[in-house]
Specification:
- With about 130 residues, this protein is of the alpha+beta class.
- It contains four helices and seven strands.
- It has helices at about 1-5, 25-40, 55-60, 65-85, and strands at about 10, 15-20, 20, 25, 95-100, 105-115, 120-125.
- The strands form three sheets. It has a three-stranded antiparallel beta sheet. A two-stranded antiparallel sheet has the order 1-4. Strands 2-3 form a two-stranded antiparallel ribbon.
- The radius of gyration is 16 Å and the shape is globular.
- It starts with a helix and ends with a strand.
- The relative contact order is 0.16.
Length: about 130
Amino acid sequence: MSARLNNPDYMRFPLRIGADGAEASTRRAHVREQIEQVLFTDPGERWFRPEFGVGIRALVFEPNSSALWELTKKRVMASLIDALAGEVDPGSLEVEVTSAGDGEQLLVTIGYRLATINHTERVELVVGGNR
């Protein structure tokens, strides 16, 4: 199974060009790159997909409370289910949003299982503050 996880079969994002052309990503890295695209793309930023993205950077300017965490969780979950279709088992997708640091950061934790190979991953991202 590890060979299927570590084969560079996907184009890397953001796109990087090396000596041999476009650099590749492993399947695990590709899914993480997709998650970062969804979280850090602002809605309306993509011309032909205006609904794509969560725009999570803007949320750090909102009052850091459980209401913000729940709203963010719902936005992230809906966006990831759409963006990761075919890669991630939608029933395995888990999103947690909480406060980090002294309340000036959001901690977003995303758990999922790669659909065809039954491999579980967990990604933690801290948004805002000095990171």
